[in-house]
């Protein structure tokens, strides 16, 4: 049974820090979260991360460039890619390498958010993780229903046959892959999926009628003149944000990395984001220049339906969907196991003494707990895919909502909250010149024991505030920092230092800085814009703004 003070529900929530002794070693109260049995090297982890990014979203990049404009779209793609790489390093760095948390065995995004924001932070992350994963899985099934039947020659109006093919292929390919316990088990299929993506990009770049279309439009200079920046810029931003969002699977991928260090994780994110951005850029530019204003949400629908080459490309897309679906299933399963079983996927709570290594229990029928939840989630995603053909507005809204919250707002808020004391000291330094007191870089606490900073930070209310203080929203940022600081102090008991078997080195320490605080503020603001843009784009389309082409997830026209 759980020790006094521990929450019975997932991810740490708002439970207080307690001392748990196991063979004389103090451990984190969340040490019951199931750990991977298999791990992968830099190549395997990078392939898994690329696979989690380059899913259904890549096929909609040409449409995103059409909506935002070619120049603006490419700028946004680079910006979103940089933000994605930065956010992945931030959330894993805070959990595994921050001086306050590196010895506390923080294994999940939601547990990280629970330190500065309690149960609210925990549930905020879990909700958006599930929204992102669930929406993506339904989209993958719909794409399978749209592509595979076309490859084998099933007519578009043969609804029953197309549905039957979707069920058969998903049960025989997607579901067994999703049954795997550890992300490392998907490294090989992820390599195949990434290879299929590369071939798909090559197909679009080779067979899109770029030269003819651009020539008819008056040349590339004329295209850039007319389509550099479009009024529908934010529609493209919502699509790009949804396509690149992978923060919901970051901890699963990083947890599968052997010998995890800041440098090795940075190599994984840098390589993965670079490859993903290059693939998206090539496919996006080639697809858009090939069809310009006629570019559809699924650019393959711009090619002839019965074309052999187009069907080869559809096969490559279907292969990517088959191998990417399990990545999202892992995330959705993780959320449900956290909420229902406090992270214990193996059913150790049902085994005397916690069972042995590799043993699993629980579940229904002949399934253990892991397979039961995997099957339940598959059925949950299958039902809407059976009933409808176009989840365009719903999927785009949920994707933009989840992506804006978990990809940008979540990392930014966590950085400010975990470093609440340091943030308040920095803010007081900004106001020091106007109030006769200056806080220097040396005054920024690193280990979290600077009580004098807490005292001066609490005196912010009595300091004179300039106009920019309110214009830049510093009352909001300082409030977030105060909440984070207070919750961190409540949850972290300096009396105890929990043991951890996470492979970190003494030199791997994530130290807060002024530049990172500004970046965190930008993350939150960008997330709000991305969220509003995603929802606004759907309203725009529903009001008739998208009559010239299909929506992002409209795969069936």
Q: Any overview of this molecule?
A:
The protein has 557 residues and is mainly α. Helices cover 63% and strands 1% of the residues. It contains 19 helices and 2 strands. A two-stranded antiparallel sheet has the order 1-2. Strand 1 (20-22) and strand 2 form a beta hairpin. Helix 4 packs antiparallel against helix 14 (392-418). It is globular and about 70 Å long.
SSE layout and pairing:
Blueprint: E1 20-22, E2 25-27, H1 42-53, H2 61-68, H3 70-97, H4 109-151, H5 159-178, H6 187-207, H7 210-216, H8 220-227, H9 233-244, H10 250-255, H11 262-291, H12 308-341, H13 369-387, H14 392-418, H15 420-435, H16 451-457, H17 467-471, H18 474-491, H19 514-545
Antiparallel strand pairs: 1-2
Helix pairs in contact: 1-6, 1-11, 2-3, 2-9, 2-11, 3-9, 3-11, 3-14, 4-5, 4-12, 4-13, 4-14, 4-18, 5-12, 5-13, 6-11, 6-12, 7-11, 9-14, 9-19, 12-13, 14-18, 14-19, 15-16, 15-18
């Amino acid at each position: 049974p759980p020790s006094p003070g521990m929450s019975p529900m997932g991810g740490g929530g708002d439970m207080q820090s307690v001392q748990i002794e196991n063979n004389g070693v103090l451990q984190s109260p969340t040490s019951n979260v199931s750990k991977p049995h298999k791990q992968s090297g830099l190549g395997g982890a990078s392939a898994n991360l690329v696979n989690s990014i380059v899913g259904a979203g890549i096929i909609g990049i040409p449409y995103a460039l059409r909506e935002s404009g070619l120049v603006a779209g490419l700028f946004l793609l680079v910006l979103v890619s940089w933000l994605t790489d930065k956010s992945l390093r931030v959330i894993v760095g805070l959990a595994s390498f921050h001086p306050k948390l590196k010895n506390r065995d923080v294994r999940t995004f939601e547990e990280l958010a629970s330190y500065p924001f309690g149960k609210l932070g925990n549930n905020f992350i879990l909700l958006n993780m599930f929204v992102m994963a669930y929406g993506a899985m339904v989209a993958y099934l719909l794409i399978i229903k749209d592509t595979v039947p076309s490859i084998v020659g099933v007519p578009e109006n043969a609804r029953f046959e197309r549905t039957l093919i979707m069920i058969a292929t998903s049960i025989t390919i997607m579901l067994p892959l999703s049954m795997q316990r550890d992300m490392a088990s998907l490294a090989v299929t992820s390599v195949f999926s990434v290879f299929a993506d590369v071939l798909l990009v090559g197909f679009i770049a080779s067979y899109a009628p770029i030269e003819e279309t651009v020539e008819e439009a008056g040349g590339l200079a004329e295209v850039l003149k007319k389509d550099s920046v479009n009024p529908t810029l934010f529609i493209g931003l919502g699509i790009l944000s949804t396509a690149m969002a992978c923060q919901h699977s970051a901890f699963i991928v990083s947890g599968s990395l052997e010998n995890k260090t800041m440098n090795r994780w940075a190599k994984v994110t840098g390589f993965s984001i670079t490859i993903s951005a290059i693939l998206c850029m090539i496919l996006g530019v080639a697809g858009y220049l090939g069809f310009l204003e006629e570019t559809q949400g699924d650019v393959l629908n711009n090619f002839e339906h019965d074309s052999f080459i187009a069907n080869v490309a559809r096969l490559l897309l279907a292969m990517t969907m088959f191998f990417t679906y399990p990545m999202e299933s892992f995330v959705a399963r993780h959320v449900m196991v956290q909420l229902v079983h406090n992270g214990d996927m193996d059913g150790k709570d049902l085994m005397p003494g916690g069972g042995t290594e590799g043993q699993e229990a629980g579940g229904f029928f002949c399934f253990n707990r892991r397979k039961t939840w995997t099957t339940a989630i598959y059925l949950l995603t299958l039902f809407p895919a059976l009933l409808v053909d176009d989840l365009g507005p719903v999927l785009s809204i949920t994707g933009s909502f989840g992506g804006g919250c978990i990809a940008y707002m979540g990392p930014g808020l966590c950085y400010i909250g975990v470093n609440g004391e340091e943030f308040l000291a920095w803010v007081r330094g900004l106001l020091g010149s106007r109030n006769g007191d200056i806080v220097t870089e040396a005054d920024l606490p690193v280990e979290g024991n600077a009580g004098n900073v807490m005292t001066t930070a609490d005196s912010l209310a009595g300091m004179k505030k300039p106009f920019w203080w309110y214009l830049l929203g510093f009352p909001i940022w300082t409030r977030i920092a105060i909440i984070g600081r207070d919750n961190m102090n409540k949850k972290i008991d300096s009396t105890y230092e929990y043991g951890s078997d996470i492979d970190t080195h003494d030199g791997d320490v994530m130290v807060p800085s002024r530049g990172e605080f500004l970046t965190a503020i930008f993350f939150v603001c960008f997330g709000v814009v991305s969220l509003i843009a995603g929802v606004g784009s759907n309203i725009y389309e529903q009001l008739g703004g998208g009559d010239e082409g299909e929506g992002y997830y409209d795969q069936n026209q």
